[in-house]
Amino acid sequence: MVEVARSLSDYLDDMALKILMVEPGDLSVVGELLELTEQLLASAEEAGEQPVLQQMAKSFNAALRMVIMGELADSAENYDRLGQCVVQMQEVMRKEGEADEQAMRLFRDNLAAAGYREELPAQAAEEAAPAAQEQTVALDFLQDKDLLAGFVAESFEHLESIEVNILDLEQNPGDSDIINNIFRTFHTIKGVSGFLNLKKINEISHITENLLDDVRNGKRTMDSDVIDVVLSVGDFLREMVQNVKDVLDKGVDAYREFDISLYVLRVREVQAGTAGGGMAAAGETEAGPPAEVVPAAVTAVREPASAGGGSPARSAPAAAPAAADPAGPARKSSSGIGDSIKVDIDKLDSLVNAVGELVIMQSLVRQNPLVSRLADPKLNRDFAQLFRITTELQRTAMAMRMVPIRQTFQKMTRLVRDLSKKTGKLVDLIMVGEETEIDRNMVDSIYDPLVHMIRNSVDHGVHSPAERERLGKPATGNVYLRAFQKGGNIVIEIEDDGEGLHTAKIRKKALERGLVSDVDSLSDHEVQNLIFLPGFSTADKITDVPDAVWAWTW
After folding, report:
1. In the 8-state DSSP scheme, what is residue 137?
2. C-alpha–C-alpha distance, residues 113 and 395, integer Å
3. DSSP for residue 483
C-alpha cells in the first residue's frame, strides 16, 4: 500500500506543478496534464486502490477534456479552480483514500464553478454509463441505414480526395484551388455527419475545417504542420467511418467509442501556431527525421503516357520539367469528368453475366442447323445486325468493369511521402499511365504487391541524400511507377535510380540458404528472379519498413 500510495502521490505532485504552468491558450500543457491524470487513473485502477480518488480523477479528467474540446472556458479563473481540485485530491490521498466530505464538496464546487455540471457519480452509475451511452449513440445514427450507407461510401471517396489533394498541396502550398477543394470536402463530411448524429465525426471534421478556413483566409500559413495534421485527421476519420460500416454490416456490437480529444488538441495547437510535434500522441506511429534533413519529403510527378500506345519507358526523361507544376494537369483532367451515377456492384455483375449469356445464346441460335440452312437474305441481314448489337453490348458491359489505375497509383504517393520522412531520404515518385484501365476485381489484388515493391524501392533501392551525392547522383532519388497496355495485357513497371541488383550477392545468399545446388549454372536473369522467392533477402540489416511476409530486398 505504501509503494502504491507513493506512486499516486508523485502523480498528484506533478499535476499540481503542471497546472501552475498553464496559461490561457496553451493547450499543449493541458494535454500534458491530461496525460498525467490518465497515468494516475491507470496506476490506481491497476492496484485496485483509492476508489474515491479514482472517481475524483475521472471527473477531473472529463473536465480537462471539455477544456480541450472548447466546452469549458480556457481561462485563468478556470485553471485556478482546477488547481484547487488537485489540492483536494491530494487531501484525499493524504487521508489514505477515506471519503473526506469537506474535500469532496470543495472538489465538486470548484468543478461546478468551472462549468462542469456532472455530479461525482456512484460506482455503479459510472460503470453503467458508457455502455448505455454507446447503445444510445449507436441507435441514434442507425435510424436511416440507407442514408448512412450512402454517407459511408461517399466519405471514403472524400477521404481519398483529401489525401490526393493534400499531397498536391505540399508541392504547391499557395494554390487556393486545392485548399478550397480540401476545405469543401471536410465541410461536406461535417454537414452530413451532423445530420446523421455522428457527433464525433462531425466534431473532428468541424475543427479541421476551421483550421483550413484560417489557411484559405490567410490567417494561418500552409506548412508541414498543417499538412501532417490534416493527413492524420484523415486517417482517423477513415477509421471512424470504417467502424460505421462495420456496424451496418455486423450490428451494434461492432460499435467502437473513439477518443478525439488528442486530435482536437493537436489541430488547435497547429491552428494557434504552437505545434510541438505532438502528433505521436494523436495516433501517428512513424516519427520522421528533423525538418532540415527532409525539406521536401516526396514529389509526385504525373507524366502523360505516350501517344503511340507502347511502353512509356523511353519518354521517362520528360518527367523532369513536369515537376514544376504536378498538380496542374491533374486538376485540368478532373474538371473534364462527365456525369456519372453510382451502381451497386452486384447489379453490375448481374448485368455483365446476363450479357455474356446473351452473346452465347445468340451464337447458338445463329449456328443452329435449321437456321443455317435458311437462305433468306433478310434473315441473314437481321442476324448480322443482331451480332453487331450484342458485340457492342458486350464490349460496353465489360468496359463498365474497368476502372483507371489512377486511384491505386495515388495511394502510393502517400506511402512514398511517409517512407521518405521515416528514412530521411528525398524521393520523387514519377507516375506514368494513370489513365490505364484494369478490371475492378484486380484493384485490391495488386495493391499489396505494389505497396511492398514501392517500400523496397524507397528503403533499399534509393540511397540517402549524402550517399547519392557521394556517388555523383542528385540528392533526390526517383521511383518510377508506370502502367501501360501491351497486347491483351496490362503491364505495371516499378523502377528506381538506386544501386540496382547485386547478382553476385544473390548467388551467394541462394547457396547459403540451399535454394539452389548449382547456382553457377543459372544465368544472371535466372539468379535475379530468385528475389521473388518467399522470404528471400540479401539485406545486411533488416529494417521494419518492408513488412510483407515474402519480403525481397536489393
Report:
1. H
2. 71
3. E
Q: The whole model's pTM is what?
A: 0.51
pLDDT in tens, 65-77: 888 777 888 888 8
User: Among positive and negative, which fits the CA dihedral 159, 175, 408, 536?
Assistant: negative
Length of the chain: 554
Q: Where in the chain is the domain with CATH 1.10.287?
A: 345-402
The alpha carbon dihedral of 397, 398, 404, 405 has a sign of positive
Q: What is the pLDDT of residue 482?
A: 92
CATH architecture, domain defined by 345-402 = Orthogonal Bundle (1.10)
Express each pLDDT in 452-469 by its tens digit: 888 888 888 888 899 888
Determine the Cα–Cα distance for residues 177 and 210; give it in Å rounded to an integer.
17
pLDDT digit string (tens) for 112-127? 888 887 644 444 344 4
The DSSP H or E segment spanning 259 is none
Residues contacting residue 464 through CB under 8 Å, at least 6 positions apart: 423, 424, 425
Q: Closest Cα partner for 414 from 320, 547, 298, 334?
A: 298
479 pLDDT more than 80: yes
Pick the CATH number of 2-121 from 1.20.120, 3.40.50, 1.10.3470, 1.10.1760: 1.20.120
Q: Which amino acid is at 450?
A: L
The C-alpha cell that represents 288 in the structure block:
520522421
Residues 6+ apart with CB under 8 A from 187: 205, 209
Q: Residue 512: count other Cβ atoms within 10 Å of its Cβ.
A: 8
List the CATH code of the domain at 141-285: 1.20.120.160
Task: Kindly state the average pLDDT of the residues 302-328.
Answer: 38
CATH 1.20.120.160 domain range(s) in the chain: 141-285
What pLDDT, on a 0 to 100 scale, did the predictor assign at position 239? 92
